[in-house]
Specification:
It holds the Pfam family adh_short. This is Oxidoreductase. Keywords: Oxidoreductase. Belongs to the short-chain dehydrogenases/reductases (SDR) family. This protein is α/β, with parallel strands linked by helices. The chain has one domain (7-266): NAD(P)-binding Rossmann-like Domain (Rossmann fold). The chain contains 10 helices and 7 strands. The chain has a 7-stranded parallel sheet with strand order 3-2-1-4-5-6-7, with helices on both faces.
């Protein structure tokens, strides 16, 4: 079955930002395929076709992209939303934990891009939208591994964008701040906790819990993703929400000393 409507593939679409993005793209006139690691547990969404996908598995990624192209004849927009968090001081997170985060947040994106990009190049058009974060350009104490994964996505996406523009394809970044999802509650804790970090880690956990609870509605981020997917002249980076916009301005304009103090204040760090 081919379609004249644009086709969007959204990873991690069962909840949170991914779910709202899938619905927003349906509202914008897209045929939408959403993915989840276990679609048997997903509540159906009007206008969204769900497929099982594990972005950490090469065969799974290849099979899903083949299914979408075979069914709809095209992929116009890829939204790489699937991701995982990790809390704790850098010294408390094992390399195994870090590897698991990167396998989803970084290598998962790379797998999806490598599978989808040949189809976009062949058609001479397409947009790859990678979900980054404000911690893709800000430090995040007690989330160093997660921040590192998002910094990696920033560098990868910007480099990729320069490579593929000549083929009519763009690689774009969407950078939310705190968003009201299950991110904090679902993020693993350190597998080698150390007493020396325990008090500050608890302070950070309380701060994150409040920030997520009071964060932007996922629909706010979804509308920014739709803008990235449809803007006639897309930008490389889209901040999502007022806090993300202020954070971007702080990063770009604040003197180093002022920036450093603001980061420590925000994260309730002493010294």
């Amino acid at each position: 079955m081919s379609t004249h409507r644009p086709v969007a593939l959204v990873t991690g679409a069962s909840s949170g930002i991914g779910k709202e993005t899938a619905l927003a793209l349906v509202g914008a006139g897209f045929e939408v395929v959403g993915t989840s690691r276990d679609t048997s547990r997903v509540t159906p969404l009007d206008g969204v076709t769900f497929l099982d996908l594990d972005v950490a598995d090469d065969a799974s990624v290849g099979a899903v992209v083949h299914q979408v192209v075979d069914r709809f004849g095209r992929i116009d927009v890829l939204v790489n939303n699937a991701g995982t968090g990790l809390m704790g001081a850098a010294e408390e997170n094992s390399v195994a934990q870090a590897r698991a985060v990167f396998d989803v947040n970084v290598f998962g994106v790379m797998r999806m891009v490598r599978a989808v990009l040949p189809h976009m190049r062949a058609r001479g058009r397409g947009r790859i939208i990678n979900l980054s974060s404000v911690v893709g350009f800000l430090p995040s104490p007690y989330m160093a591994v997660y921040a590192a994964s998002k910094h990696a996505i920033e560098g990868y996406s910007e480099s990729l964008d320069h490579e593929v523009r000549e083929f009519g394809v763009r690689a774009l970044l969407v950078e939310p701040a705190y968003t009201s999802t299950g991110f904090e509650a679902n993020s693993p804790r350190p597998d080698t906790p150390l007493q020396v970090y325990a008090a500050q880690r608890r302070t950070f956990d309380r701060m994150m819990e409040t920030a997520i609870k009071d964060g932007d509605d996922p629909a706010v981020v979804a509308q920014v993703i739709v803008a990235a997917a449809t803007d006639p002249k897309p930008k490389l980076r889209y901040t999502a929400g007022s806090l993300a916009g202020r954070a971007s301005t702080l990063r770009r304009l604040a003197p180093a000393g002022v920036f450093d103090k603001q980061i420590r204040k925000l994260n309730r760090l002493s010294g």
